Amino acid sequence: MVDRKGKGESNSYLERQSDRAVYVISVAAELSGMHPQTLRIYERKGLLDPARTDGGSRRYSQDDIERLRRIQELTNSGIGLEGVKRIMALETEIKELKEKLRVLEERSKAEQEKIHKHYRRDLVPLSQAVVLFRGAKRP
Q1: pTM of the model
Q2: Which UniProt keywords apply (predicted)?
Q3: In 12-123, alpha helices (H)
């Protein structure tokens, strides 16, 4: 197996199965329904960046196959390769922004919970003390 940087086998347990570069170009071409030369062209145009073995052979992941299918879908609808490249860059940006938003929402929720916890810990007993103080009879 080759990792996405082409630096040999990765031992990370967190590695996603779909990101593992295991397919040679002929298999990737067959899985995506394209000619191997088309995959090479897409790589030259910057639409695809397959991993490489130490010997320089391309290795494609399931993510790469899905990307190829998306490219094919867009080109079949009449969009040129530069347009496809821009659309896919924007789709990637949207995905990254959604992930950032999710992280920020989690942080915000955690901060709100922290504030409410401090409120309950500090202000509620204080408000009870004020009630007790007001209820105390003056001499």
Answers
A1: 0.66
A2: Coiled coil, DNA-binding, Stress response
A3: 25-32, 36-44, 62-76, 81-118
pLDDT tens across 36-78, in order? 999 999 999 999 999 999 999 999 999 999 999 999 999 999 9
**Encoded tokens for 138:** 């003056």
Residue 37 lies inside a defined structural domain of this protein:
yes
Residue 101, in any domain of the structure: no
Counting the structural domains of the chain, the total is 1
Residue recorded with tokens 């999710």? 102
Residue 19: DSSP 8-state: G
- The residues near 27 (Cβ < 8 Å, ≥ 6 apart) are 60
Non-local (6+) Cβ contacts of 104 within 8 A are none
The lowest-confidence range among 18-22, 57-61, 108-112, 135-139 is 135-139
Q: Coil, strand or helix: which one is 59?
A: strand
* Separation CA 21–CA 103 (nearest Å): 28
For residue 10, what pLDDT is reported? Answer: 46
